[in-house]
User: Which sequence fits this backbone?
């Protein structure tokens, strides 16, 4: 496991470079979220499989805080889309997953990336999308 101080320094450097995780605020609530009826550890492992199946590159992962940041190529924009995934374990069998995809020069969420991530996460979890 990577020491927390190293993860925090990486997040700080990425934030200064403009590709760091965007922490949710009341002004900037997630538009894309889903509840999984599963333990947080299972959702965490499935999220890493989902990133891999999308051809994404994990930039940051911190299980304790429930954060995964990855980059993935999207047809919607030129260049990479940076995706911040936050997992919040509500209880032992319920986990919220919030997704914040961002691309440089694009202020709104890139919806197709969110859909692709949740489809891949559903596949990794063995669930089907509604």
Assistant:
């Amino acid at each position: 496991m990577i020491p927390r101080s190293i993860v925090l320094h990486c997040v700080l450097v990425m934030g200064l470079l403009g590709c760091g995780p965007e922490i949710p605020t009341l002004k900037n609530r997630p538009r894309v979220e889903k509840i999984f009826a599963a333990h947080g550890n299972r959702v965490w492992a499935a999220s890493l499989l989902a990133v891999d199946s999308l051809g994404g590159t994990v930039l940051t992962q911190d299980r304790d805080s429930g954060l995964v940041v990855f980059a993935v190529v999207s047809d919607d924009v030129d260049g990479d889309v940076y995706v911040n995934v936050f997992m919040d374990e509500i209880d032992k069998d319920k986990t919220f997953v919030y997704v914040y995809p961002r691309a440089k020069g694009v202020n709104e969420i890139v919806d197709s990336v969110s859909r692709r991530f949740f489809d891949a996460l559903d596949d990794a979890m063995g669930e089907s999308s509604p």
